[in-house]
TrEMBL record:
Name of the protein in question: Beta-alanine--pyruvate transaminase
Single GO MF annotation: beta-alanine:pyruvate transaminase activity
Family: Belongs to the class-III pyridoxal-phosphate-dependent aminotransferase family.
Enzyme class: transferase
Length: 444
């Protein structure tokens, strides 16, 4: 393919890259992406890179979808921006209704944000406002989980449990505690789908209730499947047990569905696949196929009613963003959800899941692979770290895969895979085959 005509940066200094080794990248710029279409990215030189990560867990319908692009273009020509503070524009209401068609029954109130991070912080604030509206203002404690990821706002980061994301920033929010993560049980190694052991780890919430008092705990926030920490799939019965304990003590259960939403597990949301309905649900990424930044929080109708009905005249919930329900984002969401429906993206994920599962677990005998795991169209391949160099082996595998034309994602020494839901068998074969070669090349 011919070289792609794109502006070339004359300096890399100005852009402080997020979650990146800036010093390494700016000394070796061979991993630039300039264009995307279907299942692939393309470098400025025109080299194809098969996308094994849906961008960053978000381009579920594949790249460059004309339907989404045209919807954004049309909307930009009609209404580029309108505030939603004490005003409205029709397309935001339509987008919210489209989201509510997919959420679990009873979670029909949708608050728009601009990212998963904002969604997490919004959900936590809704939980606090709800309890205060009901006269239980002592419920101020927020419970997360070790190895959980809920974005990089102060609320989500405080409730999150990934050490490197927290250690630079001090104490963060007060009144936060954490459940243990569900990973590491030897009986669950190389599990296909949900592992069978570990449901009782949810009982740690009872210990926190005994320690702090149920009357102080507002909410528990967990990912149905922990993604950014390296694909931790919940044990059978774990989320059900967590739901039961929350109900027993009047604690709200929040699912962070930023990764698991919009078809990734073969259902609209992870809640549907895993059989547990939360009180509040966060989302982003697949909501607009990442064409325009947008997030959302869906809440149980009774939570909305409690906050609104308890308020005096005027504003009921003192929270929001300038770009909440942005017209271009709303247009992108509507077009994306139409593709989600007409192309049955969850159904496509379900149809290819057995083939995907076999492919992921075919790596179990590769050098230094100590675990493989999967659910829906997610795969995790855990590698033994190099002595004294955690993360180095997986990083080397990532670079080898990119240079061979396949994009994977690594976190620590775990390779995480999450291709667009339009993936087909030849794509799966190429992703897994390239990864296997890279793992073998980094066997030493």
């Amino acid at each position: 393919m011919n070289e792609i005509s794109v502006p070339r940066p004359n300096s890399l200094d100005a852009f402080w890259m997020p979650f990146s080794d800036n010093r390494y990248f700016k000394g070796d710029t061979s991993r630039m992406l300039a264009r995307a279409e279907g299942m692939s990215y393309f470098t400025p030189e025109g080299r194809e890179i098969l996308d094994g990560t849906a961008g960053l867990w978000c381009c579920n319908a594949g790249h460059g979808r004309r339907e989404i692009t045209e919807a954004i273009q049309r909307q930009a020509a009609i209404l580029d921006f309108a505030p939603t503070f004490q005003l409205g524009h029709p397309i935001a209401f339509e987008a919210a209704a489209r989201v509510a068609e997919l959420t679990p029954e009873g979670l029909d109130r949708v608050f728009f944000t601009n990212s998963g991070s904002e969604s997490a912080d919004t959900a936590l604030k809704i939980a606090l406002a709800y309890h205060k509206a009901r006269g239980e203002g002592t419920r101020v404690r927020l419970i997360g989980r070790e190895r959980g990821y809920h974005g990089v706002g102060f609320g989500g980061m405080s409730v999150g449990g990934i050490g490197p994301n927290r250690k630079q920033f001090g104490a963060l929010l007060p009144y936060v505690d954490h459940l243990p993560h569900t990973h590491g049980l030897k009986e669950n190694l190389f599990a296909r789908g949900q592992p069978q052991h570990g449901a009782t780890l949810a009982d740690a919430l009872e210990n926190l209730v005994a320690l702090h008092g149920a009357e102080t705990i507002a909410a528990v926030m967990v990912e149905p499947v922990a993604g950014s920490t390296g694909v931790l799939v919940p044990p059978v019965g774990y989320l059900q047990r967590l739901r039961e304990i929350c109900d027993r003590h009047g604690i709200l259960l929040i699912f962070d569905e930023v990764i698991t939403g919009f078809g990734r597990l073969g259902t609209h949301f992870g809640a549907e696949r895993l059989g547990v309905t939360p009180d509040i649900m966060t989302m982003a990424k697949g909501l607009t196929n990442a064409a325009v930044p947008m997030g959302a929080v869906a809440v149980r109708n009774g939570i909305y009613d409690a906050i609104v009905d308890a308020a005096g005249p005027g504003i009921e919930f003192f929270h929001g963003y300038t770009y909440s329900g942005h017209p271009l984002a709303a247009a992108a969401a509507i077009a994306t959800l139409e593709l989600h429906k007409t192309e049955d993206l969850p159904g496509r994920a379900r149809a290819i899941e057995p083939y995907w599962q076999e492919a992921v677990h075919s790596l179990r005998d590769a050098p230094n692979v100590i675990d493989t795991r999967d659910i829906g169209l997610i795969g995790g391949i855990e590698l033994a770290p190099r002595p004294g160099k955690p993360g180095a082996r997986a990083t080397a595998v990532f670079r080898r895969c990119f240079d061979a034309g396949v994009l994977v994602r690594v976190t620590g020494d775990i390779v995480a895979l999450s291709p667009p839901l339009i993936v087909e068998r030849p794509h799966v074969d190429r992703i897994i085959g390239t990864l296997a070669e890279a793992i073998r090349a980094e066997a030493a």
